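Much of the work behind modern protein science is quiet bookkeeping, done one molecule at a time. The protein below has been through that process, and both of its lines are reproduced in full.


***
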Amino acid sequence: MSREKGAHRGHHHQHAGKSSERFLNKEIILQELNIFPGEIILDAGCGNGYMSKEFSRILKNTGKVYALDPDKNVIEVLKKETEHTNITAILGDITKSTELEELSIDLIYLSAVFHGFSKSDITGFQKEVGRLLKPKGILAIIEIKKEPTPFGPPLDIRFSPPELREVITLSPIKLVEVGQFFYMQLFEKKE
């Protein structure tokens, strides 16, 4: 029985407090993202904000990190934790229009969220990513491998790297393994 991707759930992707943080190799991720001081980064579907904090640390109070998540509770906690930093926690959904300024973002980071998007979510996501990213801006998508793993979503809603490259309209530039069960695909917005 085949199902449309994302059709298995009647509501938005909920991480229910579960984080893939311990399975990801943050050093490889940060090295590959090659973040420069002064950049503006959007951590979309930021969850508890652990990567937003890593981005902030690398930026050393230059630039800005927007931590975006549809979960009101995690955003409230993150707002308190990140007061007086270059992190701005925002309640919002990357599959819809956000309050962020057009062509203002150097890097959009999305970790273990994409597989939860429905077809219409993907359309909205691409539209918002296209609106936000600067020319030559980078979209980094981390996803769980499409193979049996000890945890994670059903295989039929996962994306293999080729499937992801087929769906995303930006130019794929690099594929990196970022942990035993995860890969990161980098895309670039052409000028």
In short: Residues 1-17 have pLDDT under 50 and may be disordered.
